[in-house]
Specification:
Layout: H1 5-51, H2 64-85, H3 92-151, H4 163-210, H5 214-310, H6 317-373
Length: 400
C-alpha cells in the first residue's frame, strides 16, 4: 500500500505558502494606503502651518536669548501635552474631514493654476499678435525703404543715393509715427474714461445693494433655493429624457439595421423567386413538349401497328436499319469522291497554269533567232516556228 504522507505535507506547505503570499500582499497594500495617508496628512499639516504661522508676541530685541529659551520651553511643554492628547490612530471621520479639506485645497489650487495659466496664455497670445503685427510692419517698412531709397533714390549718373530723398522719406515716416501715437493716446484716453464710467456704475450698484434689508436677502435666498430645486428637477427630467432618447436611438438604429438586412434578404428572395418561376415555366414548357411528342409517338406507333396488322408484307425494322446504314455508307463515299474531284480540279488548274507559262517561254525562245536573222522582222519576215506543245493533248485520269 502506497504511503500518502508526503503529498499531504506538500499540499499543506503549498497552502501555507499561498496564505503567506496573500497576507504579504495585504500588508503591502495596507502599507501603501498608510503611506498615502501619511503623505496626505503631511500636506495637510504643512498647509495649516502656512495658513497659521507662529507669531512672536515679544518684540524686545535686547532679550533675544531669554525669549528663545522661553519659547523652546513652552514648545516642549506644548508638544508633551499634544503627545499626551493626540491619538495614535485617526478616526474615520477625521480622515474624511482631512481628505475633504485636501480635496478642496487641491481644487482651489487647480482653479487658481487654471486661471493663472489662462491669463498667461492670453498675455502670450497678445504678445505673439503684437510681434506678428510688428514683424509685418518692419517687413513693409524695409520693402518700402528698399523700393524708395535703395533703388528709387539712386542717382543714375553717379550711382549714389540722393540725400534729399532720404531726408524726405524719414520725415514722412516720423510724421506717420506721430499721427499713430496721437491716435493711440486718444484711444487710451477714451478707454480710461470708459473704465471710470464703468467703475462708477459698479460702485452705484454696490451702494444700492447695501440698502437691502435682511428680510429681502432671506427672501432672495429662499427663492434661490426654490429655483435650485426646480433646476435640479429639470436636470433630472432632462437626464431621463436623454437616456430615453439614447435608448430610442439605439433601438431605432437596431431596427434600421434589421430593416436593411431584411431588405437585402427580400431582394435576394425576389430574385430567387423570379429565377424559380422562369425555371418552372421552362420546365412546364419542356413537359408539355415531351407530352406532345409522346402523344405524336403514341399515335405513330398505333398507326404503324395497325398498318403492320393489315399488310404483313411491310418491311421490318431490321430492313430499315440496314437501309439507313447503306445510306450513311453511300453518303460517306459521295463525300470522298467530291473531295477527290475538288483535288483533281485544283491539280488541273495548276497544270494549265504551268502549260501557259511553258508556251510563253517556248514562243519567246523560238522567235528570238528569227528576229536576229531577219533584221528585226518586218512584214516579210519569217514567222516563228510553232511549238508542238500547242498541238499536244493531255489526258487526266481521276485520282483514286
Amino acid at each position: 500500500m502506497a504511503d500518502t504522507g508526503p503529498p499531504v505535507d506538500r499540499d499543506r506547505l503549498f497552502q501555507e505558502n499561498e496564505d503567506l503570499k496573500q497576507r504579504i500582499e495585504g500588508l503591502q497594500k495596507g502599507c501603501e494606503d498608510l503611506r498615502m495617508e501619511n503623505a496626505m496628512l503631511a500636506d495637510h499639516l504643512q498647509r495649516l502651518t502656512e495658513l497659521h504661522p507662529l507669531e512672536e508676541h515679544e518684540d524686545d530685541t535686547s532679550s533675544i536669548s531669554s525669549t528663545k529659551s522661553k519659547t523652546r520651553l513652552r514648545s516642549s511643554q506644548q508638544l508633551g501635552k499634544m503627545k499626551d492628547r493626540a491619538p495614535l490612530v485617526l478616526t474615520l471621520e477625521q480622515r474624511y474631514g482631512i481628505a475633504n479639506s485636501e480635496v478642496e485645497a487641491l481644487t482651489k489650487d487647480i482653479d487658481q493654476t487654471k486661471k493663472t495659466s489662462e491669463k498667461n496664455l492670453e498675455i502670450l497670445k497678445a504678445l505673439m499678435e503684437e510681434t506678428d503685427v510688428r514683424t509685418a510692419e518692419i517687413k513693409k517698412e524695409a520693402y518700402e525703404f528698399r523700393r524708395d531709397i535703395v533703388v528709387g533714390a539712386e542717382n543714375a549718373r553717379t550711382g549714389k543715393t540722393v540725400a534729399e530723398k532720404v531726408l524726405k522719406w524719414l520725415e514722412d515716416h516720423l510724421t506717420a509715427k506721430d499721427l499713430l501715437i496721437n491716435k493711440l493716446l486718444m484711444k487710451n484716453h477714451s478707454f480710461k474714461v470708459q473704465i471710470r464710467k464703468t467703475e462708477k456704475q459698479l460702485k452705484a450698484k454696490q451702494e444700492t445693494g447695501e440698502d437691502l434689508q435682511y428680510i429681502d436677502f432671506h427672501q432672495l435666498q429662499i427663492e434661490n433655493q426654490q429655483f435650485v430645486v426646480k433646476i435640479e428637477e429639470a436636470n433630472q427630467e432632462l437626464l431621463k429624457l436623454k437616456r430615453t432618447a439614447a435608448r430610442t436611438v439605439k433601438t431605432l438604429n437596431g431596427m434600421k439595421k434589421r430593416l436593411g438586412q431584411l431588405g437585402v434578404e427580400a431582394r435576394n428572395l425576389r430574385g430567387a423567386i423570379t429565377s424559380s418561376k422562369m425555371q418552372l415555366a421552362k420546365t412546364e414548357n419542356d413537359i408539355q413538349k415531351v407530352v406532345d411528342e409522346k402523344e405524336v409517338a403514341r399515335k405513330d406507333n398505333k398507326r404503324l401497328r395497325v398498318q403492320s396488322r393489315i399488310s404483313p408484307d411491310m418491311p421490318q425494322i431490321v430492313d430499315y436499319v440496314n437501309q439507313k446504314a447503306d445510306q450513311y455508307e453511300l453518303d460517306s463515299q459521295l463525300r470522298n469522291w467530291q473531295r477527290k474531284v475538288e483535288i483533281a480540279e485544283m491539280g488541273a488548274k495548276k497544270t494549265k497554269g504551268q502549260l501557259k507559262t511553258a508556251q510563253k517561254h517556248l514562243s519567246y525562245f523560238g522567235t528570238a533567232p528569227a528576229i536576229m536573222a531577219g533584221g528585226g522582222g518586218g512584214a516579210g519576215g519569217a514567222r516563228p516556228p510553232q511549238s508542238d506543245l500547242g498541238m499536244r493533248t493531255f489526258a487526266f485520269t481521276p485520282l483514286t
